[in-house]
Structure formats: structure tokens, C-alpha cells
Design a protein that fits this description.
heterodimer, A: about 350 residues, alpha+beta, Rossmann fold, OB fold (Dihydrolipoamide Acetyltransferase, E2P), six-stranded mixed beta sheet, five-stranded antiparallel beta sheet, 20 strands, B: about 260 residues, mainly alpha, MetI-like fold, about 0% strand, globular
Chain lengths: ~350, ~260
């Protein structure tokens, strides 16, 4: 086991009275694609900026390749970043933007040019090398920003919501570009985003943050199927979250009693999380099914999410493939019955 | 239909405003080529005599040289000061920033005559009056706020991450200032340099008070006018106007074209 590339230990960041990051511990291995994900203001960007040296931790240690970085200024680190705003230099053309990092390192003009052009070609924008960056499209500018960050062949690339300004179809394409690049280069990518689809599509490991703290770290699938707490269950995916009380091997909720594994001791509060895509919907009653009224549906192509309401007002969600809608005969106000297999529930030991 | 009438009326109004502003200057230019000694209608014949006499007059030549030296020096000093203060405002937050900015922007609000008297008193007290560079000092104080205002406007448009992006790519703060902030501000800096030069070139009151025996062009114009009615002033005035308007137009070209692009 080699030493992790980045180690944040006991890191705290305060801005005046506001604590942006509370006592954070995180290790990032060389060659790993890590996504830090959370709602705005959760401290994800501050964490990234501390790795880049743009913020100095108030407490704790930040190490890169074993070296204590707390006091190392930004320009002496090799931690290039792709900015949310891209921050391309508007007075330089695409090639000169890419050359910037090499120029700052005192590399000769001919060598600079060769390497910059090489990177622009690798990202398939070689033909725009001499164009003013302000005349390029969003996707092209994105590629210039990537080339500019990668031209110095750093051990790590930091990305701060880099795709948030792009159209949906471009986001998918750029995700492909990023995944391919990261595999080919074998370097560490630390990717900050509020988008679940980006984090899950790209990362080997996802770090979920809330209010300055890490609330769960794991592989995308792990986080999706086994959220560690109520925050993650609400933030990730489409989950039905039912509060209740443990009765040993069943959980008692307002909607009924459901068998579940991994419950805390009897009479302790517990929460049952059932992913919307594991819920079964029928027109006819089945044993133990919850009768519901359809409120609305959200159609996004291949999948459809149905929003229903139980008799006591609890909101429930069902996600299913569009072609499975078949003869359900959906209409608002329609009566349906929801159920799920006993092993579909995931239990949280909290109320 | 009424919209077209409104547009026509507005255009007519605009034309009137332009006539109001430029007619006197235009008249001065016309009379500078008029052979008659007095500015009266009908005009005499076309002549370049007044231009010939001013180019031949060593005193006017001396004043022109003084004006050029003063306005160029002022432009460099005021633009440097203006950039420094604008960058301080952009980059740093400190406790007395409000008063700091107010103080910097104060000079143009002081009546010129008061400013001139104060400058004269102060400069003679520290033994620096009556020199060409006395005018440079006074003009720099007077014009630096304009330079600052222009450069500050440009800095307001910068992507706040631009400088950090330069550090992130390995440039120290000084290098980032040189390779990112200065190039970004270049149009505003050129514009500020042109404008401060133009203001200094035209400025009379302060120059008259602190110049001593060193006369700038506006000062010499007054002396000529005080002596007698001499069409030479029309010729000098036309040249001064040409210089100033060129500088101002240059300032506009550099500034407006960039501002509207971002």
C-alpha cells in the first residue's frame, strides 16, 4: 500500500465567525478519481481550494506526496485547477492560454508551443489554436481550460464544477472526455460538483459533504444503495424515507409494519429507506401493499418517476422504466398499490 | 408613425446640442484661417499666416515644448498612481477602505482656483514652486482620480478567478500582476494615459498659478489675449483642440471597444 497522494487530517477552515469546514479527514490515493459532492455551501469548494493552496487551513494539516503543504504558496504547488468560470485569459489566444503554465516555469518558446499544440490536438481543438478564446464555444473553451491545466503534466487535477455552464448534451460528451483522460494519464482527479449524475458517472469514490462535514465516503453504487444517514438518503437518488420504531426484526411506521434487516434493538428509533426504483406499483391490491393516490409524474425519457400520496399524506415515489408503464393507465387521482420486497429496504439507525 | 416623428425630433435635438457645443470651436477654427485681423463676417481671404507666425514665435514654441513635457509626465505619473489605487481597491479589503477611496477621488471636486492657490502655497512652502515639474505634481494630483476611475471600471469586469488562475499555474503574485492584471487592464491604461494627458495639456488655472516663468500653452494664450486681439490665438486654440480631441477619441476607442466586448 503506497502512501496516499493527498492527506487532509483534522482540517478546519473558518472565515471569521463562519466555519466552512469542520475537522475534515480525507485521504486521496494516487490515480484515483474522487468526486466531492454536496449542496451549495457544504464546504466542498473550500476543501478543493485548500488542496490548491488558495485557502490556508485554520487548523489541521494538508499533505501532498507526504509534504506538509499548509505554508506552501499557491504558485509553488503543482495542483492545477479547472475553474467553474474557466478563468481563461481573455487577452491570450487558445494556444497562449495553454502555454501559460509552461511560460511561468520558464520553458522556451519553441518547446512551449510544441507542447501546447500537442495538448490542443489531443483534446481535438488543434484547429482553434490561434483563435481568441472569447470566440470559442462553451465546449471548446472547456477543452482549452483542460489543456491549460494538464500541459504541465501534474500529478493531480482539481476540477471545480467544470461542467456546470454547459448544455446537457455537452456535459455527457465532456464526461466521456474526462473519464478517458483520467484513465490514460493515470493521475488523480478531484472533482467538485453538486450534481449526482456527474459524480456517479465519473468517480471511483464519492465523498458526500454537508455543512462542512463529510457525511459519507464510498463507491457510487454503495452510496446509492446504502446511504449512511438521512441526509445522504435525501440528497442522493430518489428514496422513500419512512421514520419508525424498531420492533426487533420489523419496523413500525405510520404506513404499516415492514420486515427489514439490520434494525437496531427493539423500541429504538429507526428509518427505513426504500429506493424508488425498487418499489412495485399495481392497480390491484396485494397483500401488505400501501394504497396510494397518484399526484403527478415526471417523464425524462427512459425512466418515469411517479409521485403518490398515501392515505395519511405521506409522499411516496416510484421510479420505473417507461416501457413498464404498459397497462397501468396512469392519470392523476388514480388509485394504486405500492409494495416492495423485504430485502429492498435499507435501515438507518436514527429517527 | 409617431415613433418615427419622435426619433426625428430626438435626432434634431441631438443636432442642436452638437451645434451648441461645437459652434464656438468651429468658429475659432474658421477664423484661424481668415486673413482679417478681427473676427467678423463677411470673412476675408484664406490664409495660413497665423499658423506661420505661431510656428515662428520662439516663445510659443517654448510653451508648446513645456506643455508636451508636462502632459506626458503627468500622464505617466497619474496613470501609475491611478492603476495602483484601482488595483488596491480591487484586490484588498481593509478597514478604512471607504475613507481611502473618498480621499483619492476628492481632488476633482475641489474648486480649481482653491486647488491652484493651495498648490502654490504648499509648493512654495516646500520650495518646489515655479518649476516645470511643479505643474507636473499639481496636474498628477488633479488627474490621477480620472485614471483610477477608468482602470477601476475595467477591473470590475475581471473574472475574480483570473488572478488566482495565474497563481494556480505557477506565477507568483508579481508575475501574475505583470502577465494577467496589466494585460487585462491595457485598454483602460492606454485610455487613462490619453485622457490624463489631454486634461493636463488643456489645464490653465493650476498651471498659471504654479508655473512661475515656465509657461504652458494655455498660459501663453491668456497672455496673448490680454495684450491685444490677435488671430494667433485662434490658430493656437485650433491646434490645442486638435490635440485634445485626438487624445480623447483615442481614449474612447480603446476603452469603449473593450468595455462593450466583455
Amino acid at each position: 500500500m503506497t502512501e496516499p497522494l493527498v492527506i487532509l487530517s483534522g482540517v478546519v477552515k473558518r472565515f471569521g465567525d463562519f466555519t466552512a469546514v469542520h475537522h475534515l479527514d480525507l485521504e486521496i490515493t494516487a490515480g484515483e478519481f474522487v468526486a466531492i459532492m454536496g449542496p451549495s455551501g457544504c464546504g466542498k469548494t473550500t476543501t478543493l481550494r485548500m488542496i490548491a493552496g488558495l485557502e490556508v487551513p485554520t487548523e489541521g494539516e494538508a499533505r501532498i506526496s507526504g509534504r506538509l503543504m499548509n505554508a506552501v504558496p499557491v504558485h509553488e504547488r503543482d495542483t492545477p485547477m479547472v475553474w467553474q468560470s474557466l478563468a481563461l485569459f481573455p487577452f491570450l489566444n487558445a494556444r497562449e492560454n495553454v502555454e501559460f503554465g509552461l511560460r511561468m516555469r520558464g520553458i522556451g518558446a519553441a518547446e512551449r508551443r510544441r507542447r501546447a499544440v500537442q495538448w490542443l490536438e489531443r483534446l481535438e481543438i488543434g484547429e482553434f489554436a490561434e483563435r481568441n478564446v472569447e470566440t470559442l464555444s462553451g465546449g471548446q473553451r472547456q477543452r482549452v481550460a483542460l489543456a491549460r491545466a494538464l500541459v504541465t503534466e501534474p500529478p493531480i487535477l482539481l476540477l471545480d464544477e467544470p461542467l456546470s455552464a454547459l448544455d446537457a448534451h455537452l456535459i455527457i460528451r465532456m464526461q466521456g472526455v474526462l473519464t478517458r483522460l483520467q484513465r490514460e494519464l493515470g493521475i488523480t482527479f478531484v472533482y467538485v460538483t453538486h450534481s449526482q449524475s456527474e459524480a456517479f458517472a465519473l468517480a471511483d469514490r464519492v465523498v458526500i459533504m454537508s455543512r462542512g462535514r463529510i457525511v459519507q465516503v464510498g463507491q457510487p453504487r454503495e452510496i446509492y444503495r446504502a446511504p449512511a444517514n438521512r441526509f445522504v438518503a435525501e440528497f442522493v437518488g430518489r428514496n422513500n424515507i419512512l421514520s419508525g420504531i424498531s420492533r426487533g426484526d420489523v419496523i413500525e411506521t405510520a404506513l404499516g409494519i415492514f420486515p427489514a434487516a439490520g434494525l437496531p434493538a427493539a423500541d429504538k428509533p429507526a428509518t427505513l429507506v426504500v429506493a424508488a426504483d425498487l418499489v412495485r406499483i399495481d392497480r390491484t391490491p396485494t397483500e401488505g401493499a400501501i394504497p396510494c393516490t397518484l399526484i403527478s409524474e415526471e417523464f425524462v425519457g427512459a425512466t418515469v418517476t411517479l409521485f403518490l400520496e398515501a392515505a395519511d399524506g405521506t409522499d411516496l415515489k416510484v421510479q420505473l422504466p417507461e416501457r413498464a408503464l404498459g397497462d397501468l393507465n396512469l392519470h392523476a387521482g388514480g388509485r394504486f398499490h405500492l409494495s416492495w420486497p423485504a430485502d429492498a429496504g435499507h435501515v438507518l439507525a436514527e429517527g | 408613425m409617431s415613433a418615427r416623428i419622435a426619433t426625428a425630433l430626438l435626432l434634431g435635438w441631438l443636432l442642436l446640442v452638437f451645434i451648441f457645443i461645437f459652434a464656438p470651436i468651429l468658429a475659432s477654427v474658421v477664423f484661424s484661417f481668415n486673413s482679417d485681423r478681427f473676427p467678423t463676417i463677411p470673412l476675408g481671404s484664406f490664409t495660413t499666416r497665423w499658423y506661420d507666425t505661431i510656428f515662428a514665435d520662439p516663445e510659443i514654441g517654448e510653451a508648446a515644448r513645456a506643455s508636451i513635457v508636462v502632459s506626458l509626465s503627468t500622464s505617466v505619473i497619474a496613470t501609475t498612481l491611478g492603476f495602483a489605487t484601482a488595483y488596491t481597491d480591487y484586490r484588498y479589503n481593509f478597514r478604512f477602505k471607504g475613507p481611502y477611496l473618498a480621499l483619492i477621488l476628492l481632488p476633482p471636486t475641489i474648486p480649481l482656483i482653491i486647488m491652484a492657490l493651495a498648490m502654490l502655497a504648499w509648493l512654495s512652502w516646500i520650495g518646489a514652486s515655479g518649476q516645470l515639474w511643479s505643474i507636473v505634481i499639481a496636474h498628477s494630483v488633479l488627474t490621477a482620480p480620472f485614471a483610477m476611475a477608468i482602470i477601476r471600471l475595467r477591473l470590475n469586469q475581471i473574472d475574480p478567478n483570473l488572478e488566482a488562475a495565474a497563481w494556480n499555474l505557477g506565477s507568483s503574485e508579481w508575475k501574475a500582476l505583470r502577465s494577467v492584471i496589466l494585460p487585462f487592464c491595457r485598454p483602460a491604461i492606454i485610455s487613462a494615459a490619453c485622457l490624463t494627458a489631454a486634461v493636463s495639456f488643456d489645464e490653465f488655472v493650476v498651471a498659471w498659478f504654479v508655473s512661475g516663468l515656465n509657461k504652458t500653452v494655455p498660459v501663453i494664450i491668456l497672455e496673448i489675449v490680454q495684450g491685444n486681439i490677435d488671430p494667433q490665438v485662434n490658430a493656437i486654440g485650433s491646434l490645442v483642440f486638435l490635440t485634445s480631441i485626438t487624445l480623447v477619441v483615442l481614449a474612447q476607442v480603446f476603452f469603449i471597444s473593450r468595455i462593450s466586448r466583455t
